[in-house]
Amino acid sequence: MIDLFNMLAAYLHDVFIIKFDGWVVLGFVAQAFFTMRFVVQWIASERARKSVIPVAFWFFSIGGGVLLLIYALYRRDPVFIAGQALGLVVYVRNLYFIVVNGRQASAKD
């Protein structure tokens, strides 16, 4: 059991202390953007008493998606790169619909 604890401690030290750099900070900032989009959506839905997706949700999605794509490119992770790139297409497309249809039409949904 002590060996398991020591292995876990060594792993956590390696991940959170030794490998901590500016790229990890960027990854955490990007993840914070994604967290904020859900917080914004939750607050808007609670206020409206129905499911609502505010425009800010898409801006946080694009911000988080761009930062995570940069992070994924740096880390050279093909799965992460593909996932973030595809997500950005969806986020930008939704923002396009909001601009074209106007904010009033998107608020009714």
UniProtKB/TrEMBL annotation:
Pfam families for this protein: LAB_N
SMART domains from the xrefs?
A: LAB_N (SM01259)
What species is given as this protein's source? Bradyrhizobium sediminis
Keywords, ordered alphabetically: Membrane, Transmembrane, Transmembrane helix
* Protein name (record): Lipid-A-disaccharide synthase N-terminal domain-containing protein
Transmembrane spans: 20-40, 52-74, 80-99
- Gene Ontology biological process terms, A to Z: lipid A biosynthetic process
Gene Ontology CC annotations of this record = membrane
* Gene3D superfamilies reported in the protein's UniProt record: 1.20.1280.290
Asked if the Swiss-Prot or TrEMBL record annotates the protein with the keyword Transit peptide, the reply is no
Q: Which residues form the Lipid A biosynthesis N-terminal domain?
A: 26-97
GO MF annotations in UniProt: lipid-A-disaccharide synthase activity
Does the keyword Transmembrane helix belong to this entry? Answer: yes
